[in-house]
């Protein structure tokens, strides 16, 4: 899964969807996750990276991760048509 190509993400966590005109703010952790998604990292890789960087256990991180992914889907920010 990855962010749609037309979605703009600033270094300060501002996310803009030009298709809908909607904008959102995300925190540093959300920015890191978007970066890893852009690198086409797997959920397992992202979980490993984040649990190494932050004081969180894998099951707790995965819950937050899937909640974040659900939010991205709800706001139509993910490009899931080109999934393999």
Structural description of this entry:
This protein has 84 residues and is an alpha+beta fold. The protein has one domain (2-79). Helix content is 46%, strand content 17%. It has helices at 28-38, 43-53, 58-74, and strands spanning 2-3, 8-9, 14-17, 22-25, 78-79. Strand 2 (8-9) and strand 3 (14-17) form a beta hairpin. Helix 2 (43-53) crosses helix 3. The longest helix is centred in the C-terminal third of the chain and has 17 residues, at 58-74. The N and C termini lie close together (9 Å). The mean pLDDT is 92.
Summary, kept brief:
With 84 residues, this protein is α+β, with helices and mostly antiparallel strands.
Mean pLDDT metric: 92
Kindly state the percentage of residues in helix: 40-55%
Tell me the strand percentage band: 15-25%
Number of domains: 1
Q: Characterize the biggest β-sheet.
A: 3 strands, antiparallel
Q: Overall 3D geometry? A: globular
User: How many beta-strand elements?
Assistant: 5
Count of alpha and pi helical runs: 3
- What is the chain-wise order of helices and strands? EEEEHHHE
Structural class: alpha+beta
Distance between the termini: 9 Å
Which regions contain 5 or more consecutive residues with pLDDT less than 50? none
**Backbone CA Rg:** 13 Å
The strand order across the widest sheet is 2-3-4
């Amino acid at each position: 899964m990855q962010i749609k190509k037309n979605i703009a993400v600033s270094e300060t966590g501002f996310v803009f969807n030009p298709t809908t005109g909607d904008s959102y703010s995300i925190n540093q952790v959300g920015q890191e996750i978007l970066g890893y998604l852009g690198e086409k990292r797997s959920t397992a890789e992202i979980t490993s990276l984040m649990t190494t960087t932050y004081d969180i256990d894998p099951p707790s991180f995965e819950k937050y991760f899937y909640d974040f992914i659900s939010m991205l889907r709800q706001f139509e920010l993910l490009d899931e048509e080109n999934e393999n």
